[in-house]
C-alpha cells in the first residue's frame, strides 16, 4: 500500500530494493515483443508510469546527473522550499527558463503513441492511465486525457499566502522576468525585488506565487497518491517508460504491481535497479521501442508513418500558436 506522505527523495531506495519480495523470478526480463503484445491485447486496465527519459527525447533538459547544471547549481539546490525562501528571484529565474524552453519543445513519438493508445482503447471500453513524474505537460499536448502529474506542472502556480492554485501559460510569467533566466554559468543573478516577482491575482491577496511543483523535501499530495494507488491496484498491465526507478515514491509503484504477479514492461535506454523484477524489458529510445509495442491495428511501417505524421502536425500546430 502506498503511504500517503512520501517525499521525492530517494535516500532509502537501495535499502528498499534489498528487502526480499517473496518468491520472485529473477530471470532476465523478456524482450519478446509478440509475447508483450499478446498480454497487451488482453489487458483492460493499463497503467503507464513515465519519467524524464520520455521528455529527454523531445530535447527537454533533465538537470540530473553529470552536467545537469543551471548556471552553477543543480536542480536539487534550487528546487527546495529553503532555496525559494532564501532567494525567490533566483528560483523564479530557473523556473522561468524551464518554462520558456518547454514552449519550444514538442511531444515526441513516445508521447503520441501513448495518447493514441488511450484514445483507441477507450473506445473499446478499456482504461489507460498515465502516471507521470514529468512537469512539462507534454503528455497533455500529445492528447492524453487521463493523466496524474504526481510532481505537479511547470505551468501551474500556487500562492504562498492564500494557497490558490491555477494554470499559467503567460510568457513571460511576469514583466520583470522577461529576458532573464539564461543558464550560462557566467550569468549574474537578476536580483528581482520580491514585489516584482509573480503575484497572486485573487482579490485582495497579491501574495507571492511559487511554481506548483513538488520540491525536494516536500510531501506529495495525498489525494493524488490515493488515486494512483487505486489505479495500480486495479491494473492488469503496467508500463514503465523512460524512468530510472530511483526517485520515490514512483520508484516503488511498478515494483508493487510486479509483486502482485501483474506483468510489468520496462522501456528504457538502460537497465534500472528494478529491471530484474519485471516481466519485460525493451532497451532503446522510447520513441523507437514504444510505438510498435502499443499497436494491435497497424503494421509496423504504417504505425511509424502514422506517428511521424502526428508528430509533424503537432510541431506545425505549436509553431503557429
TrEMBL record:
GO terms for cellular component: cytosol; mitochondrion; nucleus. Substrate binds at residues 95, 98. It catalyses: N(6)-malonyl-L-lysyl-[protein] + NAD(+) + H2O = 2''-O-malonyl-ADP-D-ribose + nicotinamide + L-lysyl-[protein]; N(6)-succinyl-L-lysyl-[protein] + NAD(+) + H2O = 2''-O-succinyl-ADP-D-ribose + nicotinamide + L-lysyl-[protein]; N(6)-glutaryl-L-lysyl-[protein] + NAD(+) + H2O = 2''-O-glutaryl-ADP-D-ribose + nicotinamide + L-lysyl-[protein]. It holds the Pfam family SIR2. The keyword Lyase does not apply. CDD domains: SIRT5_Af1_CobB (cd01412). Its cofactor is Zn(2+). It comes from the Eukaryota. It is found in: Cytoplasm, Cytosol; Mitochondrion; Nucleus. Binds 1 zinc ion per subunit. InterPro entries: DHS-like_NAD/FAD-binding_dom, NAD-dep_sirtuin_deacylases, Sirtuin, Sirtuin_cat_small_dom_sf, Sirtuin_class_III, Ssirtuin_cat_dom. The active site is at 151 (proton acceptor). Residues 26-306 form the Deacetylase sirtuin-type domain. NAD(+) binds at residues 51-70, 133-136, 242-244, 268-270, 286. Zn(2+) binds at residues 159, 162, 200, 205. NCBIfam families: PRK00481.1-3. NAD-dependent lysine demalonylase, desuccinylase and deglutarylase that specifically removes malonyl, succinyl and glutaryl groups on target proteins. Has weak NAD-dependent protein deacetylase activity; however this activity may not be physiologically relevant in vivo. In contrast to class I sirtuins, class III sirtuins have only weak deacetylase activity. Difference in substrate specificity is probably due to a larger hydrophobic pocket with 2 residues (Tyr-95 and Arg-98) that bind to malonylated and succinylated substrates and define the specificity. This is NAD-dependent protein deacylase sirtuin-5, mitochondrial.
Amino acid at each position: 500500500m502506498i503511504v500517503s506522505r512520501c517525499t521525492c527523495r530517494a535516500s532509502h531506495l537501495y535499502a528498499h530494493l534489498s528487502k526480499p519480495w517473496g518468491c520472485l523470478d529473477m530471470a532476465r526480463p523478456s524482450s519478446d515483443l509478440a509475447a508483450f503484445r499478446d498480454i497487451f491485447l488482453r489487458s483492460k486496465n493499463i497503467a503507464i508510469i513515465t519519467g524524464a527519459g520520455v521528455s529527454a527525447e523531445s530535447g527537454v533538459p533533465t538537470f540530473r546527473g553529470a552536467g545537469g547544471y543551471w548556471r552553477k547549481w543543480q536542480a536539487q539546490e534550487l528546487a527546495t522550499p529553503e532555496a525559494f525562501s532564501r532567494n525567490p528571484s533566483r528560483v523564479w529565474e530557473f523556473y522561468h527558463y524551464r518554462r520558456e524552453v518547454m514552449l519550444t519543445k514538442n511531444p515526441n513519438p513516445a508521447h503520441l503513441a501513448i495518447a493514441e493508445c488511450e484514445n483507441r482503447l477507450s473506445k473499446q471500453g478499456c482504461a489507460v492511465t498515465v502516471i507521470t513524474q514529468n512537469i512539462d505537460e507534454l503528455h497533455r499536448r500529445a492528447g492524453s486525457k487521463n493523466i496524474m502529474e504526481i510532481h505537479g506542472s511547470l505551468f501551474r502556480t500556487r500562492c504562498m499566502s492564500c494557497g490558490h492554485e491555477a494554470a499559467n501559460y503567460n510568457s513571460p510569467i511576469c514583466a520583470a522576468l522577461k529576458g532573464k533566466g539564461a543558464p550560462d554559468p557566467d550569468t549574474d543573478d537578476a536580483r528581482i525585488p520580491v514585489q516584482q516577482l509573480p503575484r497572486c491575482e485573487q482579490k485582495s491577496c497579491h501574495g507571492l506565487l511559487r511554481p506548483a511543483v513538488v520540491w525536494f523535501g516536500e510531501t506529495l499530495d495525498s489525494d493524488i497518491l490515493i488515486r494512483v494507488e487505486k489505479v495500480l491496484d486495479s491494473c492488469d498491465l503496467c508500463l514503465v517508460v523512460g524512468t530510472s526507478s530511483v526517485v520515490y515514491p514512483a520508484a516503488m509503484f511498478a515494483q508493487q504491481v510486479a509483486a502482485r504477479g501483474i506483468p510489468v514492461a520496462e522501456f528504457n535506454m538502460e537497465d534500472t535497479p528494478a529491471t530484474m523484477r519485471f516481466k519485460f524489458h525493451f532497451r532503446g529510445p522510447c520513441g523507437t521501442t514504444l510505438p510498435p509495442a502499443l499497436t494491435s491495428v497497424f503494421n509496423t511501417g504504417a504505425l511509424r508513418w502514422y506517428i511521424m505524421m502526428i508528430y509533424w502536425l503537432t510541431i506545425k500546430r505549436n509553431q503557429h500558436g
